[in-house]
Specification:
This protein is mainly alpha-helical. The protein is 61% helix and 7% strand. It has a 3-stranded antiparallel beta sheet. Helix 3 (27-42) crosses helix 5.
């Protein structure tokens, strides 16, 4: 069965704003960081760790320099990048979707 794409996740602005690393990021670093977070959500939580690809994805000529600062916010595993919070939120959204699907099946059976 094909996995349904998660269309909605909770994005907590306070988590960004209270993070000390995020607070000291300049505008370019924040832009790349947020872009990567959004792309991770759209790609089931993982992206290839390919600086040239990510540079174009984030539209950032200085990507390598920016990445040196922000990479500590990501998990790098088997040539891909992940983010702890993104992974947790996607799992939470999948669980909610699964519970709602099970409830819908039960309602359909009752009819």
């Amino acid at each position: 069965m094909k996995r349904k794409k998660i269309k909605y996740v909770s994005l907590e602005s306070g988590a960004f704003l209270s993070d000390m690393v995020f607070q000291v990021m300049n505008a370019e670093e924040r832009g790349v960081y947020c872009s990567l977070i959004f792309y991770l959500y759209e790609n089931n939580g993982g992206l290839p760790l390919n600086p040239e690809y990510l540079k174009h994805l984030c539209n950032c000529e200085n990507f390598e320099k920016v990445w040196e600062f922000i990479k500590r916010k990501f998990i790098i595993k088997r040539g891909r990048i992940y983010h702890k919070r993104v992974t947790a939120e996607l799992e939470r959204a999948r669980q909610i979707f699964q519970v709602q699907s099970q409830k819908a099946v039960k309602r359909a059976i009752k009819r």
